[in-house]
What we know:
The protein is mainly beta. A hairpin with a 6-residue loop joins strand 24 (496-518) and strand 25 (525-547). It is globular, with a radius of gyration of 25 Å.
Amino acid sequence: MTKKKLAFFEGYVAFIGVAVVGMLCAFEGVAFAQNTDTLGKVNQLQEVKINEYRVSRQSLSPAPLQILTGPDLQRINSLSVADAIRYFSGVQLKDYGGIGGLKTINVRSMGSNHTAVFYDGIQLGNAQNGQVDLGKYSLDNLEEIALVSGQSDEQLQPAKSYASASAIYLKTRIPAFDDKKYNLTANFKTGDFGLLNPAFVYQHQISRHLSASVSSEYIKANGKYKFRYTNGVYDTTAVRNNGDVNRFRLETAWFGQLNKQGKWHAQVYSFLSDRGLPGAIVANKFNYDQRIWDRNIFVQGNLTQKFGERLAVLINTKLAYDYTRFLDPEYITLNGFLDNRFHEREAYVAVSANYRLTDRWQVSFASDYQYQDLKANLYRFAYPRRNTFLNVLSSSVKLSRFEVQANLLSSTVNDEVNAYSSAGNKQVFSPAVLFSWKIFEESNFRLRGFYKDIFRMPTFNDLYYTFIGNTLLKPEFAQQYDLGFTYQNSFKKQQLTFVEVQADFYYNQVKDKIIAQPGANLIRWIMYNLGRVDIKGAELNLKTGWNLGKELALGTAINYTFQQAMDITDPSDENYRQQIPYIPKHSGSFLAKIDYRNWRANYSFIYTGYRYNQKANIIYNYMEPWYTHDLALGYGFKLKQASFNLNAEVNNLLNQYYDVIPNFPMPGRNYRLTLNFKL
C-alpha cells in the first residue's frame, strides 16, 4: 500500500472512530439540549467559568501548549518575539547575533520549515525560503504568544492550522474600554549597541460596535559589541561590526461587531528594514559589507458568524507583498556587485464551518486556497507560481472527563514556472488524532496525547534557485507521537497558591529530509533528499505561585528538555545513530518574578547543553554549552489618570562569550532601560 493510500486509510479510520463515539453520545446529547431554560442558564454559567480559567488552558489542551501572556512579555528581558520564545521548552533558536541578525526557530528538532507562524490567526507565508525571521516582530503590541506542538484543538480554524508539525500564534491586543473612548500606550527603550526604540499603541472606540487601533515602532541600533575570538593560538577581543539596523513598523486594525453572534477584524501591516549582515568570524576576517533591505506589507481580515446555537462560520482572507534586496560588494559579477532582488506575492482565502450535532459531538470542515509567486533578477530564473489547496474534515467528542478529536487533511499543491521545468503536482493525505482524559473526578490530573502525520513542501529556493534548485525533490514527511500529562491545583490560605505541571514524551520520525550541501564550490550547492532522522525527547514544565506576605508575591517557572535526534539513514555510515547538528541533548530555563507593592523584579536563566555543528560527533565539531543570567528591576506608579513604569535590565549578567551558530558570536553583558506610559 502506498504512503498516500495508507495515510488516507489511517485518517479515515480515525475520523470514523470519533464519529462512532459521537453517535454513541448523540441520544444523551439531544436529550440534554432539549431540557428547560433553567438548565440552559446553568450551561451559560459553566461557559463563563471556563473563560475565567482561560489563563491556564495549557492544562486542558490535548496537545502540548505553552503560553506567554501580555504581562509576562512586558516583564521578561526580551526585545522581539525571538527573544521571548527562548523560554519555551523543546525549542532551539538559531540566532546569528545582534539585533538585526536572522532569528529562526526549530521545535522538537523538526527543522524551521516545519513550524508555522500565525499572526492573528492567519499564517505568515514565505514561499521563497519557508522561514520566518522572528526577530522582525515586536512584543509591544502583542497580547499573547502561544506555541503548540502538533496542532491546536480549536474546531473553528482554517486548514492551515492543521498543516504543520507545530505552530506559533501571535495575538495582538484587542481594544477594551472601561469608561473612556480611548487607550494610549507608549514605550521608549534605550541601551547598549546604540539602541533607540520608541513605540506606541493607540486604541479608539468609534462607536458601540466599532473600534480601531494604530500601532507603530521604530528601532535604530549600531549593533556593535565586544566579543572574544580564538584561532587556537591567539585569543583576541574584537568588536562586532555590520550589525546596524533601521526598522519601522506601522500597523492599523479595525474591530467590529455585526450583531450578538458576529464579529470581524481587519488590519494593515507594513514593515521597512535596512540592516547589515554580520558575517561569520573565520580566518581572522572581522569586517563585512553585505546589506539587506526588506519591504513587507499585508492586508488581512477575518469574519466570525454564528447561526443559532449549532453552526459557526469563519472566513479569513489576506493579500501580501514582500520585497527583499541583498547586496554583496565582495562578490563581483559581470554586471558589477552581486545585487539580488526578490518580489513575492501572496493571495489567501479560507472558509471554515463548525456544526454542533449535539452538545458533546461536533464536526468541522475547512477549505483554504493560497496563491504565491516569486520574481527575481537572477540569471535563468524559473519565475515559479504555486497554488495550494487544503481541505480538512474534523470531528471531536467531549464527554465529562474524556475528549478525542480526529481530522484528515488533504493537501494539493500545483507548481508552475515560466521557464524550464516545474516540480509538478503533489497530493498528500495527512491524518491526526488527539485525546485528553481527566482520570480522576476530583483531581485536575489529565493524560493526553496525539498522533500526527504531516509533510512540508520544498521551498522555491530548494526547487528553483538558479544553479542549485532541484525540481525532483520530494516533500519532507514526518510522523509525530506524543504522550504526556498535565496537573494543576490551587491552594487557599497557604503560601503556595498554585502549582501547574506539564510533562510530555515524544517520538518524531522524519523521512526524505531536504539537505543542502556545497558542491564543487561555495556558490553552487546541491539540493537532495536524504534518509531518515529519529527524534526522541521529553519536556517538563513546572509553574508555581507563592504568597510570601501581605504584599509580597513570588512566581517561578522551570522548563527542561531532553532530545536525542539521530541520523539513521545508513548503518554503514560512520555517523550512523549520531546526534544531528545543533541539537543539544539537554536544555532548559528558569524564571522567577517577585512583586512587592509598586516594585517588581525578574530573574531568568537559560541553558543549552553541548552539541555538534556537523554530522560527525567528534571533538573538532564540538560546541561548548552556554548559559545566560538576566536580571530586571521595575517600578510603577500612577499620576492622576496616567500610569508609568520604569524597567532596568541587565542581560548576560556574567558576560559569557558564546555562539548559537558557529562563528557568529553573541553579545556579552549589556544593559537596557525601558519607560512605559499608559493613559
